[in-house]
Design goal:
heterodimer; A: alpha+beta; 3-stranded antiparallel β-sheet; B: alpha/beta; 5-stranded mixed β-sheet; two-stranded antiparallel sheet
């Protein structure tokens, strides 16, 4: 018997349209990709977003500055504590408020813990997309300790409304710092276990190595920022390159990786967690005493003007444009959310990927739909 | 160190104004292209602010309404704390800008958002699609004169009465 030869060379495959999402576990939220498929291969992809659009920017125009601060945690709900930071920076620039030193340190501590928690979710959910359930339990265990720490300080676990105009809401409870250091140790142990289990796993490597490599030029062209940009070999981190708060006082590196494929985008998160731990250890050791909130008026009425602030959130550069007309309500709040631009690279990189590689690709980009849709 | 004044001198049609580079709508693409050629910029954000007309006590228009469109460029070659802002003012009647997609591909989604929420038209990029609101949404919600549509999710039906009368 020879090889099978089609009797008729007119046999062709037929392209079809596949809607991936909006209700699909691997899209990590209500993201929909409209894929044109040829069998298992993606011919073209189109992003369909907006299912979670809550009109936050319009809401902001109807309420006061202080009332809008908790809303900001609902943008990127996986790293809730980091979200009000950029908005507070913009308010402080508008009002000319100087934040006390202890408050800046507390912001860095809570913010970096939140960044670690967010990266742990990314690592766990990415391997979960490859049906690897065991490693997921390791990182979520580690995250649980961090959420307990956040809860002890701020009162909430996920949508942490801790940073406010002029400082932070409450001080650390007694005995928090030793607990935080112990949590870092146990988190690193679990992360090492996770790292050993996943990063060298042949199946994992086979499904992520060389998948959808993004060059630094492409990433800049598409406005990709954050860990995804650094995975493409471009060294840029606002914490280092344009330090806000007290980030210029800590000794830490900005890790980069050469190829920008799905594996690099995964590995960069592990490297960044280790750098965050370095920042945290220094901040916990040098935490100064003092006030935790500057004196700001109960009704905040900044002079007419505009402020733009940007921070390095867990997903990239988060920017806030806040325009004041002199009244107690903002005239306009515009949010530049990192995930919104990061997913712009999907239609460019998807053609030619198989469907399972496409899943690996979008998991490695680590977007959050609350951040995209606002 | 790049400051606004030197950038304005090397950018056609641009002048420094309130910490931003102010350019006319017709000179926007030339200015952005000149900046791109200098290297070291990433298009971070496009945003628009609606400034409606102000009226005097007798109801006459004292200042005409306009839109303020800001392009934020991240300058990664220097350690400046602020982003570079390129600002265009557009009148309320025909707010139209040329697309910047040919310069930075990031402009694609950002322009769609600005059109969807604020109604600034971008020419040279084909049919515009809504991105955050649903496809059949009418109006541009971030404009100050936007009136939210009446809730029509549950249209009035009369079957309850008919059922009470023993009908269908």
């Amino acid at each position: 018997m020879g090889d099978y030869v089609a009797e008729d060379d007119r046999i062709e495959t037929q392209e079809f349209i596949l809607n991936l999402g909006p209700q699909h576990p691997s899209t990590h939220g209500v993201y929909r990709a409209r894929l044109v498929m040829d069998g298992e291969t993606v011919i073209s992809a189109e992003n369909k977003v907006g299912y979670l659009h809550r009109g936050m920017e319009k809401i902001a125009e109807g309420i006061t500055y202080a009332q809008f601060t908790p809303y900001t945690t609902r943008f990127d709900y996986v790293s809730g504590a980091l979200q009000p930071w950029a908005f507070c920076l913009a308010m402080e620039r508008l009002g000319g408020t100087v934040v006390p030193e202890r408050a800046e340190y507390l912001r860095v501590i809570i913010g970096e813990f939140q960044r670690i928690a967010s990266h742990l979710v990314m690592l766990g959910s990415m391997v979960l997309d490859f049906s690897a359930i065991t490693p997921w339990t390791y990182v979520f265990n580690a995250r649980e300790d961090i959420l307990d720490l956040l809860e002890a300080t701020t009162g909430s676990r996920l949508l942490v409304n801790y940073m406010v105009n002029g400082g932070v809401n409450n001080d650390l409870p007694e005995g928090w710092v030793p607990k935080a250091e112990a949590a870092l140790d146990s988190m690193l142990k679990r992360l090492d276990d996770f790292d050993r289990m996943v990063s060298g796993n042949e199946i994992f490597l086979g499904r992520t190595k060389g998948i959808a490599p993004v060059s630094a030029e492409e990433a800049i062209d598409y406005g990709v920022t954050g860990a995804n940009l650094r995975a493409s070999g471009f060294k840029f981190d606002l914490r280092k390159d344009s330090p806000y708060s007290v980030y210029d006082r800590f000794d830490f590196d900005v890790p980069t990786l050469p190829t920008g494929d799905s594996f690099d985008r995964y590995l960069i998160r592990i490297l960044e967690i280790r750098e965050s731990v370095r920042i945290l250890r220094q901040a916990l050791k040098t935490l100064p005493a003092g006030e935790i909130r500057a004196k700001v008026p109960k009704v905040f009425k900044p002079a007419a003007g505009e402020a733009y602030s940007a921070i390095e959130s867990a997903r990239g550069i988060m920017g806030y444009q806040v325009v004041s007309d002199g009244s107690a309500k903002p005239w306009r709040v515009h949010v530049r959310s990192p995930s919104f631009c990061n997913i712009g690279i999907i239609p460019a990189k998807a053609p030619g990927l198989s469907l399972q590689d496409f899943i690996a690709f979008i998991a490695s980009l680590d977007f959050v739909l609350g951040d995209i849709d606002r | 160190m790049r400051d606004i004044a030197t950038l304005a001198a090397s950018t056609p049609g641009a002048e420094p104004k309130e910490g931003a580079l102010a350019v006319p709508a017709s000179g926007l693409l030339a200015a952005l292209e000149a900046l791109k050629k200098q290297g070291g910029f990433l298009l971070l954000d496009i945003s628009a602010v609606d400034r409606p007309a102000t009226k005097g006590e007798d109801g006459s228009v004292t200042t005409a309404g306009f839109f303020e469109v800001s392009y934020r460029l991240l300058d990664f070659k220097q350690d400046s704390k602020e982003m570079l802002t390129v600002r265009v003012l557009l009148d309320h009647e025909t707010p139209t800008l040329p697309t910047a997609m040919g310069i930075w591909k990031a402009a694609d989604v950002l322009e769609r958002e600005v059109w969807d929420l604020m109604g600034i038209e971008f020419t040279g990029r084909g049919k515009m699609e809504r991105i955050l609101t649903r496809d059949d949404f009418e109006g541009h919600p971030l404009r100050k004169d936007f009136v939210p549509p009446k809730r029509d999710r549950f249209p009035e039906v009369s079957w309850g009465k008919k059922a009470a009368e023993g009908g269908q």
